[in-house]
């Protein structure tokens, strides 16, 4: 689903701003902040999710494992004339032992000129490597912007999932790469695609605490009611991460706080069990506002009863002082 329609950018149009991005740090593997270990953020849910799809985005390549064309595609140091001669006598779609084509290797390593030559030779756009990833997915994973745009311009399908169920947009969301996410959406990427854990790009962004990407996808009209395979909403995931800022942003979208996951727990249940007092207060205040809108004559109808909370589980509210009464007490 494409939420907004713009003219499709050409790779040449994006070359200059993208060139400012550092290649030495941009593809390092980030671990999800609250998925392992103990503490308030760990509420026993993260073991249900598989993070292995996001480990080692770059190919591990040994020179002895590659044929002549694959070496040229990976290293990109072959003169253009020699490469053209090589392409005339070689099957451009031949694969190595990891099922990688020359297009996979060139795209993953940012050799955009070789990518263009291979595409001119009508190589297979949708060949899968051993993890069922297309060249486009590898280019997005490794944040090789020009290769991504070139592949999209030549008609690569952005919605083909890999063995984990992730599409190119999932990897852009994980990398918090708004530029590539926007390009993928312009070329028809499905903003509601789900991976094998049932995570849409938005849910993945929340799960990984990618707050900027979460804001971006909300602006692109991602479905805030989407649930993963465990029935968890974006709000529940934000609570489980212990992120008060993400919870606040989601509450600003007027979402349903009463949704239960498959274990019957709501966002408030998770907040209470992990003793996130600030989040408890955010949810309680939000519920009070919602109740006052629905029942204006009974606005003080005990939100805590609805959630099964006791006052000790929420931070104490300080009574506001009346300046007029104080002034009267001071006067003789």
From TrEMBL:
Keyword Transferase in record: no
ANK repeats (start-end): 98-130, 164-196, 197-229, 230-262
Biased composition (Basic and acidic residues): 314-325
Sorted UniProt keywords: ANK repeat
InterPro entries the UniProt entry points to: Ankyrin_repeat_domain (IPR050657), Ankyrin_rpt (IPR002110), Ankyrin_rpt-contain_sf (IPR036770)
Disordered: annotated segments: 313-332
Pfam families: Ank_2
Family matches, as SMART domains: ANK
Protein name (Swiss-Prot/TrEMBL): POTE ankyrin domain family member A-like
